[in-house]
Every structure is written in C-alpha cells, then in structure tokens.
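Page 42, continued from yesterday. The earlier attempt failed because a stray header line got pasted into the input along with the sequence. Redoing it now with the clean sequence only.
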Amino acid sequence: MSETQQPARPRRERPKALRLTDAAAEQVKAAMAKAEKPYVGIRIGLKNAGCAGMSYTMDYAEKQNPLDEVVEDKGVKVLIDPKAILFLIGTEMDFVRDKLQARFVFNNPNQTSACGCGESVALKAAVQ
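This time it went through. Structure tokens are written below.
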C-alpha cells in the first residue's frame, strides 16, 4: 500500500427502511405458506385514501420491480414501492390481536395524524 492510499473502511450496512416485529414476520410467513401460488415476498405501499390522506397497502408480490426498495427482515422479503419509501423510513410493521380483530399495524415516525376511524393517516417525508 502506498502512502497515498487509505486502508479500506468496512462498509457500514445501510439502515433498513422498514423493520418487522417477530409477530409480523410470523404472520407474513404463515400467509405466504398458505398462498395459492409462490410469491417473491410482500409489497408495501401507500395510496391516497380516507379523510387523513393516505392509507397503507400490502399485497403479495409476484415479481421484484427494478426500482423496489428491498428489505429482508426475520426471513421475510418486503418490497417497498419507490413512491412510498420516503414516507416509510423508520417504520416498524407489527401484527396485533385483540378481542375483536387481528391486523397489521404500522408504527411510523413520519405520521403526523390519523383519522378517527383508523382507515387513513397523514404522513410527512422522512428527514435524513
């Protein structure tokens, strides 16, 4: 190594845009195992909806699109719509059960408000 070359720094892993709790990962794995056909993972996105402005979308992903943000966490492959990524950075996806329902919940630090019915949220882009 010459005097002008610097030693290579270990590459720091980029923070994940989305994390899954153990409960969410187990529920996704169970759903994927029961799916009608093989899928590459689940796709998370946002759509304009509800009185607060946006709602989360989640569906099986048949293929990975070139611009998808790919997160692999706890054995689950999550593909994030590129239009949604700035609103989802730092989000934790959980699965909760109570007496009347079971559902996926997104704990998102970018959420500024939610509607009273729980169907939609207002989000701001993440500050990096």
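Notes: The mean pLDDT is 84.
Reminder to self: strip header lines before submitting.
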